[in-house]
Structure formats: structure tokens, C-alpha cells
Amino acid sequence: xxxxxxxxxxxxxxxxxxxxxxxxxxxxxxxxxxxxxxxxxxxxxxxxxxxxxxxxxxxxxxxxxxxxxxxxxxxxxxxxxxxxxxxxxxxxxxxxxxxxxxxxxxxxxxxxxxxxxxxxxxxxxxxxxxxxxxxxxxxxxxxxxxxxxxxxxxxxxxxxxxxxxxxxxxxxxxxxxxxxxxxxxxxxxxxxxxxxxxxxxxxxxxxxxxxxxxxxxxxxxxxxxxxxxxxxxxxxxxxxxxxxxxxxxxxxxxxxxxxxxxxxxxxxxxxxxxxxxxxxxxxxxxxxxxxxxx
Length: 294
Ligand SMILES: [Ca+2]
Ligand SMILES: [Ca+2]
Ligand SMILES: [Ca+2]
Ligand SMILES: [Ca+2]
Description:
14 strands; alpha+beta; 6-stranded antiparallel beta sheet; disordered C terminus; 2 domains
């Protein structure tokens, strides 16, 4: 018991240190450091895979859109090189301890232009299994004057701007793209990085994956009201509706010594101990990262 406790303390310190080292960076070969993810290595469209990096679920939508846009089909609107500016290309999701992390791969940093300039929306989350987004991670301070990186318990949301606001099919398919009002329940930094991916798929337009922006968003699952969600629907869209990426992520149960105690019916430790145990679990999970998820 005592040895286990010391192990937990050591791993907690290790976990905290690892937690602060989250600045997003990309290796010369294009691998996102700390994620083990190299964008564009898997060229499938509209699929979800778990074999790009251990513990990571990857939603692949490069050069593709889940919406069939008038005149161009399932590509970011309005198609071609302008549409590519709106391409939300990949989302990679994982949970480390109580932190749910999203790695978004996109063509533009917060704003893109097609006639007018439009903003990237917030990361909208449905956590309760009932239709409708419950929380939103605000991605850009300019959207509604809310705090960037803040996780908001949603009161009201914003509908699409621009032409697709008047297309009832597309407006309904995307729904809200940003938080209008709500209560901030936590806040974490948003990290970004840029990388030129050139022509990863040997298509006839090499420059379209240059100037790729990588975003890392973090959500504190402990800040979400109620029991830890078993699955979370997420979505992020441009305010104009020119592309949207989303999916359902199955949240792993905590794992590690903390969860073992709880499932064995041991009385709940004090809040501080929960934090320590969570950190131990985090470090243990990091240590097991070579184990494939499936
Ligand atoms: Ca693309
Ligand atoms: Ca896309
Ligand atoms: Ca909901
Ligand atoms: Ca691109």
C-alpha cells in the first residue's frame, strides 16, 4: 500500500510535468509531437479510424465534406481552391485522465474568405445523449465576445451566417456553430501550429495542404455537470457553413488505480486524493501508450 502510494506521488509529479509540456509542435516530417499523428497519412474520406496513433480516434475528412453542397457535391463549399480554404480536414480525439483533447487539422487559422471573411466556429459538444449541444469550447474571442479556450455550459447558440443560413437543409444539418451565451465552467489554452504538408496524396494541386493549421483544444471532463459521459458528440463548423467536421467519441472509463478503487466499492477519497489518483492514472495511461486501442 505504501509503495503504491509513493508510486502515485511520483507519477502525479511526472503527470503534471507532462501536462504543462503541451505547446503544439510539428516535426520536420509532419508528425504532431506528443500525438504520434501525421496528418494526411490516411487518405480515406468520411471514415473514423483508430490505427493512426495509439489511444487516438481519428475522423478523416480531407478534401471532403459531410454535406452535399449545391453544384459541387461533398467537398468544402464553394469547391476548388476557395473551398479548400474552409477544409476541416481531420480531427483526432483522445482522453488523458480527465482531459479530453482534440487535434484539428485545417487549412486556415480562425478565418477564411469567400467573398466575405468568416470565422471558425466553436467546438460544440453533446454530452448527455439527448439531441442538442450542451457545452461549447470557444475557439475565437471574436465570435461573441466570450473567452477563447473557455468551456461554456450553453444557454443560447448562434445560427449560420451568410448564404447557407438561408438554405434550410444545410442550416439544419449543421445547426448551431457557436455559443452565444452561457456560463464558463473551465478554461484551458488553445495551442496552434503551422506546417506545410505539400501534396501528401500526390494529387494535381500540391499547394493545397501547405499552410495547414493545427489546433489543440482541451476540455476538462471534470467540469461537465453530472457523471462522466460515456460518449460525446462533437462538431466544429465555419460560421458560413462551408465545411463542418464532427463525430461521436466513446469516452474511455478512467482506468488506472483510481477507478479500480471506485469500482471495488471503497468509499470515495477526499477531493485532493481524487486529483492525485487521477494524475497517477494519467501517467499510467501514458506509460501504456504502445498498447493498440483495438
Ligand atoms: Ca484538403
Ligand atoms: Ca473537410
Ligand atoms: Ca444534449
Ligand atoms: Ca488544406
